[in-house]
Amino acid sequence: MKIFHTADWHLGKLVQGIYMTDDQRYVLEQFLQAIDEEQPDAIIIAGDLYDRALPPVEAVDLLDELLAEIVLKRKVPVLSIAGNHDSPTRLQFGSKLMSEAGLHIVGELSSNLQPIVLNDEFGEVHFHLVPFAEPSLVKHIFEDNNISNYDDAMKKVIESIEKKMDKSKRHVFIGHAFVTPYGDQEDNTSDSERPLAIGGSECVSAEHFKPFHYTALGHLHKAHYVLNETIRYAGSPLKYSASEANHEKGYLIVELDADGQVSVEKRPFRPRRDLRIVEGSIQEILKHPISEDYVFVRLTDLTPVVGAMEQIRTVYPNAMHVERKTLPRLESSEQGEAIRREQMDELSLFKAFHQEILGEEPSNIAQQLFEEVLQEMLKEERETKEVVVK
């Protein structure tokens, strides 16, 4: 079975005040062309179809248009889930009706997890669609008070799936989570993706996905595999922040043979405009050839530049941001390594701020209170989306 794996479209994305809808349409039209050329048996979109729970009309229209082209015109099944940016209720609406046409979208998690079964010349392939869900919701759905973090929650969901799994069939997991090899904390691949939690409690161990022949993930914006080559992120189709400037964006073509052996090939997207970082003095930059790319400019001038953005836009009319390049404030890690403040997580920033203002490390109680407040803010932010929708 040939599968296209993509994720994190973030339709309606606003980057530095610029809506990316036209750029998203440009690369996703390439996706449609690839479907015509490759004739896949199924399309996976692993969450974050939209950038927020209430996307702009243009984003909704674009998704509707694309899904109609894929499912109704080309007759290719689409399997998709809600990510942490999506509204579960909004995506879930009409799912039973749409599934008859080949559009399978799961927005809300359920304890009665049933796979979507597709067939090829070798038999059945079972697709397990698991949308993003808070640990507290998983605890409630499965009535398990031992669930305290995202790793516990994912383990519980997979255990539930495995109990009913027909091991003679091929199985594909579709999820939206921060997966690391063994559940240890790692840096995010993009500044444009908000953390799910703090202190490493958002990380999920890749070892949980061993029962599946292929695991299609969304959430992290850089395409890569975790632990082994069958557990993969497709990454986002476009660069959505300066931290993604060096990413190679595209989608994955996954081939699943009769025995469930997997081969994966990455195909690139060609953006309408690249997003990149430009560095140099104002005089050096003004000598560059005119470019329509989205650029983040770092000026190396030692003195302030008057009207910097106006000057830069004579060369880069779509410049997004300009800043003076300065030596970053460094903090020391426990291992004595220097760390840029912009690379630090929220808790580390709090500790550094506390040390700078009060001259001492925060107490354990202060750290615990900070973590609880920040965690509650992250949770309320996601819940507010649902309240607005309902």
Automatic annotation (TrEMBL):
Q: Is Lipoprotein tagged as a keyword? A: no
| Pfam families in UniProt | Metallophos, SbcD_C
Q: Tell me where in this chain the Nuclease SbcCD subunit D C-terminal domain is found.
A: 272-356
Signal sequence extent: none
Superkingdom per UniProt: Bacteria
Specify whether Thylakoid is a keyword of the entry. no
Domain named Calcineurin-like phosphoesterase: residues = 1-192
Q: List the InterPro entries.
A: Calcineurin-like_PHP, DNA_Repair-Maintenance_Comp, Metallo-depent_PP-like, Mre11_N, SbcD, SbcD_C
Q: Which UniProt keywords apply?
A: DNA recombination, DNA replication, Endonuclease, Exonuclease, Hydrolase, Nuclease
GO MF term set = exonuclease activity
Among CDD domains, the record links this protein to: MPP_Mre11_N (cd00840)
Q: Its biological function?
A: SbcCD cleaves DNA hairpin structures. These structures can inhibit DNA replication and are intermediates in certain DNA recombination reactions. The complex acts as a 3'->5' double strand exonuclease that can open hairpins. It also has a 5' single-strand endonuclease activity.
What does the similarity note say?
Belongs to the SbcD family.
Subunit structure and binding partners: Heterodimer of SbcC and SbcD.
**Name of this chain's protein:** Nuclease SbcCD subunit D
